[in-house]
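Predict the holo structure. Ligand: magnesium ion.
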Amino acid sequence: METNQALNNDLICAIATPPGQGGVGIVRLSGQGAFEIATQLCGKPLISRTAVYTDFFDAEELLDNGLALWFPGPNSFTGEDVVELQGHGGPIIQHRILNALCHRGARLARPGEFSERAFMNGKLDLAQAEAVADLISSTSIAASKAALNTLKGAFSEMITAIALDIANMRVRVEAAIDFPEEDIEILQEARVAEDIAKTITSLEAILVQANQGRLINSGISVALIGAPNVGKSSLLNALAGEEAAIVTNVPGTTRDLLKVDLVIGGLPIRLVDTAGLRESNDEVEKIGIARAKAQASEADLTLYIAAADELAAQANTSELTRNLDLLQVSMDPTSDDGAKNVLVVINKSDLSAVADFPQGIANVRVSAKTGEGLDVLKKAIQESVGFGQENVPFAARQRHILIIQDTLVKVNAAAAALTENLGAEFIAEELYIAHQRLGEVTGTVTPDDLLGKIFAEFCIGK
Ligand SMILES: Nc1nc2c(ncn2[C@@H]2O[C@H](COP(=O)(O)OP(=O)(O)OP(=O)(O)O)[C@@H](O)[C@H]2O)c(=O)[nH]1
Ligand SMILES: [Mg+2]
């Protein structure tokens, strides 16, 4: 791995455990002078990589007692001298220890600054550092496994292998630039076309997996939309397995958005119940309906709920058509125009056995009351966003997907340049850009402002 020299190794400190009371609270120190200042604080010498039972002092005053662990750099999380002070987990104690460290010259760390230093010192690449934050914030077992795999390097290894293939192609293509007369034959002999094709296949495969990794990592938002009284709130309760939303037979029961987090087959989902869509003169309800519509356009997936018993009547069918229109949902199942992000769900299947849904729109029939069809609905939710497997090999982010897509565009452009005999220079240029762009996944080339953004999302102390 390429080692970036840390720009700054001044002494930083932070509470690494969550706020509040706990059995143990950990204060972490990293940078130049960590050992000296921690030794002063403990009043006794620390021993490398050994837990030392000790008191913690501010000047002469006893603050707490616990364990001190010293990890001399570069064999530490950040690559710098790191000390962990493990005391009692109370906010006052932790802050007093932090103050004592700051009195002696340490400063409070920014969010993510420990991980940023680990990245800068070549301990983790950028995708791995991102996985630290993703692992901490994961909300399903499958998501945590995927993030851990990324942290362990599973994703980075695949990216690095493809980057290496591109680098090797570049060497051969750039060698041909010096022989403009024979470059076509040289490229043919060097089997560049085959390698470009292989790289395209690899990028396409990793894109599919990265998309799974993104879905499991960030989860999806699913909005429940439909006319009043069709059973949106009942369905939310049935899916969540708890009575989170109020259900009554009064149309217009739900007025505000209600969000519930759940996990379906490893995929974290934020389910949003909304106010039933109808013409209303009620000020509060009108706002609720506006929020419902906004939610429908923001969500990764909209479940459009209709009631089976009402659908028998033609009037309600046209209402459905009108509502879908309002939501700008295409009625044509073959159209890409937003249709893939809407799933029509016919609830109250226990009340009516109407077999065929009008307009031939694909739908899922369920009963929030009896639970019929809920498993099919869960599967359909996953399929609608393209989530196909619980055992996702690695976690990824939207940032990675965009990079892989751009890289694919460039490698495809290189393939086209080769087919069209545009000359080695053109191919080399496309491959150069592809190589640079792909390097942004692991951070071999990454603009500083992007790094700032990535690490600012971390919690303090990590
Ligand atoms: N038979 C039957 N009744 C249902 C089913 N789902 C919901 N209901 C009933 O339908 C009525 C309305 O249910 P809600 O869940 O409040 O409907 P909603 O779509 O949230 O309604 P609003 O909040 O007013 O928009 C209640 O009386 C529910 O008990 C179902 O699957 N079968
Ligand atoms: Mg409701």
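The pocket of magnesium ion (ligand 2) is lined by residues 232-233, 245, 253-254, 273 (CB under 6 Å). The longest strand covers residues 61-71.
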